[in-house]
């Protein structure tokens, strides 16, 4: 996964299929896959960012659904609760994951495109070949920045 300068793109180069991850420690001779073109780097970064954002948002939305259903079940033990409250909740609670995934998709397209284009420009300018692991790492970094920035940090100033 080291950066190697190359001006020679292999003549038989074809864009590797997604995800094309390989074991980076002592790989077999034909195992390493590299990305050479800016469009390939952008595409892989966008795909990994979409996947990581989708996974994080889906897990958060499923937690929200479980908490909503838990609160409805907890109120069922009270004598004055409507008998169809759980059924009514099931009619709309499915919208939570859908909404989260729509927001995740919009955020991921923006973040993945910006980062992918910048990465592609840097690797193209330096004439580097990129390992297929780098877009995955940048997708994880993107979602890490999103998670950290969601917390309110109070300064002591």
Q: Kindly, what is the distance between the CA atoms of the first and last residues, rounded to a whole number of angstroms?
A: 42 Å
How many distinct beta strands? 2
What's the number of helices?
Answer: 4
**Overall morphology:** elongated
Describe the sheet with the most strands.
2 strands, antiparallel
Averaged pLDDT, please? Answer: 83
Helical coverage, percent range:
55-70%
> Nearest-angstrom radius of gyration?
22 Å
List the strand order in the largest sheet: 1-2
Strand content: under 5%
- Low-pLDDT parts are none
Order of helices and strands: EHHHEH
What is the count of distinct domains?
1
Structural class: mainly alpha
Describe the structure.
The chain is an all-alpha fold. It has one domain (37-149). Helices cover 60% and strands 3% of the residues. It has helices at residues 38-75, 85-92, 95-125, 133-149, and strands spanning 34-35, 130-131. A two-stranded antiparallel ribbon has the order 1-2. Helix 3 (95-125) packs across helix 4 (133-149). The radius of gyration is 22 Å and the shape is elongated. The mean pLDDT is 83.
């Amino acid at each position: 996964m080291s950066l190697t300068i190359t001006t020679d793109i292999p003549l038989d180069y074809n864009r590797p299929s997604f995800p094309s991850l390989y074991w980076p420690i002592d790989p077999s001779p034909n195992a390493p896959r590299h990305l050479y073109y800016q469009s390939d780097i952008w595409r892989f970064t966008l795909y990994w960012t979409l996947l990581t954002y989708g996974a994080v948002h889906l897990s958060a939305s499923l937690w929200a659904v479980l908490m909503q259903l838990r609160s409805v079940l907890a109120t069922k033990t009270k004598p004055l609760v409507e008998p169809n409250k759980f059924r009514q909740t099931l009619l709309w609670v499915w919208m939570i994951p859908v909404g989260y995934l729509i927001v995740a998709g919009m955020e991921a397209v923006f973040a993945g495109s910006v980062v992918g284009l910048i990465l592609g420009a840097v690797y193209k300018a330096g004439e580097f070949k990129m390992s297929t692991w780098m877009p995955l790492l940048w997708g994880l970094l993107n979602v890490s920045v999103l998670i950290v920035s969601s917390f309110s940090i109070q300064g002591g100033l």
